[in-house]
Amino acid sequence: MNTISIALVEDHDLTRIGIRTALQQRNEIKVVGEAANATEGLKLLNSTHPDVAIIDIGLPDFDGIELTQKFKSSMALESTINTKVLILTFQDNEEEVLAAFAAGADSYCMKDISFDQLLEVVKVTHEGNSWIDPAIARIVLKQARIQTSVPETPKNEPKKVRINAAKPEFSQIINAYPLTERELEVLELIVQGYSNAAIAEKLYITIGTVKTHVRNILNKLCADDRTQAAVLALRSGLVG
Q: In this predicted model, what pLDDT tens digit does every residue of 26-53 receive, in sequence order?
């Protein structure tokens, strides 16, 4: 079994200790370091290059979004580094959610998640797939506007950043294998967090038909799972 190395950046002592203790109980997880602020967190990530970095947004010196952006920028200079970033927070503010993904976050979940669920999110993220909390997915669906830039704001106002679209290769895939109108409807419901059964009920079709549409969507988008398909859809502007 491959070990997943984890670095934890969280300023709340009890939360950090609790997460670390829970993760260390799993044989497949190795916590390589922890930090209580973004400055130390950036040093930690640059020195340890963990498989997954769990980062809280509300850090005392500069926030987890800026930390993610700084680390991802430095990581881009090193082709051998492929650390995934999991944002863990109590906040579901739409600006922070969008900014986190624009900064390069791979997954985003709320702190009220169970430890078993957190472990599953870590595994999914480590495998290269994005995981979005269902509540967060609805926010992103409602608010995301691909490649929308805004004027700079004063330091005491919330930061807004450019939302990056999917890679050009993805557009080529979509042009070659366009989604049908029904597949787009199913994809939008997937992004909103609906299960196959709920999609079937909402669209008045059978679960078997939904599964067929989902399979076709995954194939056309070259996505490994529903979550990855949702992220690609949001970043490319297929839905939103």
A: 999 999 999 999 999 999 999 999 999 9
**What are the pLDDT digits (tens) for 165-179?**
445 545 555 555 578
How far, in Å, CA of 22 to CA of 115, rounded?
A: 7
Name all contacts of 66-73 with Cβ < 8 Å and 24+ positions apart: 66/38, 66/103, 66/159, 67/9, 67/38, 67/41, 67/42, 68/100, 68/103, 68/104, 68/105, 69/103, 69/104, 69/161, 70/42, 71/42, 71/45, 71/46, 72/103, 72/104
Predicted TM-score (pTM) of this structure? 0.61
Cα separations (Å) of 109 from 10, 130, 131, 149?
14, 11, 8, 25
